[in-house]
């Protein structure tokens, strides 16, 4: 029987034991086999999301690049999958670059980002022949020019521009407004000077411009406004310096459903807005239409992933509330604590049962704020049972920590009734692996 709460993976269903299954795998059994917390990804759904993005753009233009933002979730297997699906990869640090290279991801299809890349990170990127580096400051520009020169290479670069657009999302994940630590602002000629400097740099090839206005964005209109701003900036630089914007990278940010009441736009609507706006705005500015890059992270992986927890305790404070305490928490999903993000929950062995109570789902960490869900309806939760939170595939594992000595969870891919570990669960020994003794 298929079973759908919107954020659950599409292959979810209820099996003959009455348990939640994903891609034909019983979630209760998976929890038993791999331990909890456990990240479970429907591999086909990630692949299908990649294909949806490609289709959405391919039906509208020949000149595009879908660049998966690996900060949403990165590991060797996922980088391999992204490469197999023909996407490019956004890495935001030497570490994410290392993971990509370990997966033999083609370096020419990698974009390096970051507002504080070290000399070593830039040097490593150039040495590994990373396709594009998105420059965020004049200091980075100068350092990169020097590094590329030292290595006898001409590095392709984009400039990250802060378009001054406010997207309607949480303040912490808004990046395109004027007061931002990211990119070159358009005020007072700062961005223009950066274009001039990049064009003049001996060892850099300025291919185009980049913007990223934020994350978990539901309204597409800010993307259109951003593109208008970028086109007019490109026109201005064309007139002044003869700059040709051959690539316009509009960043990521498409929102996803975390609960049944969220209704985000899809990749197709996003592509329509972006491709039409780029055509219209560059056309109006009298410029050739550039190749378009987008950098989806969350919308590729969020809904394909769920987390399974073991219920460890159920505690009712009479007249106040019931706390359902589970085997993970802020060490595997920091989003509720950081952004007030909302999730839903269900009991894997009774996924369709009507809620019998309202409860808070509490994490196991020594913090009162470690609450995964403040209030949700649950069907008679009991210790030992498996509680599932849907839509945890993005920024869950990637922001995981070892707080309170918690071992980071295993991550598995499920596909056609088979489960495979793509990141093994940390052992207690892993926790002390880097420690040195005093004597
Ligand atoms: N490109 C750039 C330059 C970015 O900074 C980001 C995300 C993306 C692409 C991907 O954005 P997405 O499509 O995933 O929205 N930890 C936060 C999200 C931080 C996003 C940071 N940058 C969260 O859990 O909501």
| Computed structural class | alpha/beta
Are any ligands bound, and if so which? ligand LLP
Find the CATH superfamily of the largest domain: Alanine racemase
Spatial separation of the terminal alpha carbons: 61 Å
Oligomeric grouping of the chains:
single chain
- Spans of at least 5 consecutive residues whose pLDDT stays below 50 are none
Measured as a percent range, the helix fraction is 25-40%
Strand content: 15-25%
Topology:
Blueprint: E1 12-14, E2 20-22, E3 25-26, H1 27-34, E4 38-42, H2 43-58, E5 64-69, H3 76-84, E6 88-91, H4 94-102, E7 110-112, H5 119-127, E8 132-135, H6 138-150, E9 155-162, E10 184-185, H7 190-200, E11 204-210, H8 221-241, E12 247-249, H9 267-284, E13 291-294, H10 298-301, E14 305-317, E15 321-326, H11 335-339, E16 346-347, E17 357-362, E18 371-378, E19 386-390, E20 410-415, E21 418-423, H12 428-432
Parallel strand pairs: 4-20, 5-6, 5-13, 6-7, 7-8, 8-9, 9-10, 9-11, 11-12, 12-13, 15-17
Antiparallel strand pairs: 1-2, 2-3, 4-14, 14-15, 14-19, 16-19, 17-18, 20-21
The structure holds ligand LLP.
Ligand LLP binds at residues 69, 71-72, 90, 113, 173, 212, 215-216, 251-254, 295-299, 335, 339, 395.
